[in-house]
Design goal:
Blueprint: H1 3-17, H2 27-48, H3 54-78, H4 84-108
Length: 111
């Protein structure tokens, strides 16, 4: 029953490896797609086995944040800086994620 949490934690750790693969264009997308697959798998297993936990929700959010930050970093390297529209979009996504996290804490007392 801990497998979904292990998968979520592993996703956060692997997402931190993404910036190391920025120069390796075949490996970066492969790992990114693998991380997206892990995201689907851990959510599916947690729901199917009815083992959703606060820790799992936190690890899921951390994994998403690490993946998002790594992709923004990769874009900045590949584009020699990030154009303003991408920064604006990144800030909007971050703001929406933060707001939904805060609402979850206030309304349900969990993320």
């Amino acid at each position: 029953k801990r497998l979904p949490n292990i998968i979520s934690g592993g996703r956060a750790v692997l997402a931190l490896c993404l910036p190391l693969l920025v120069g390796n264009k075949p490996a970066f997308p492969a790992l990114y797609l693998g991380l997206r697959g892990e995201r689907l798998l851990d959510g599916y297993l947690a729901r199917k086995w009815n083992c959703r936990t606060k820790l799992g929700a936190l690890l899921d959010s951390v994994g998403d944040l690490c993946t998002f930050a790594a992709v923004i970093y990769a874009l900045s390297v590949w584009m020699n800086g990030i154009p303003r529209p991408i920064w604006i979009g990144a800030l909007c996504v971050t703001g929406i994620r933060g707001l939904s996290f805060f609402i979850g804490l206030v309304k349900f007392r969990r993320p």
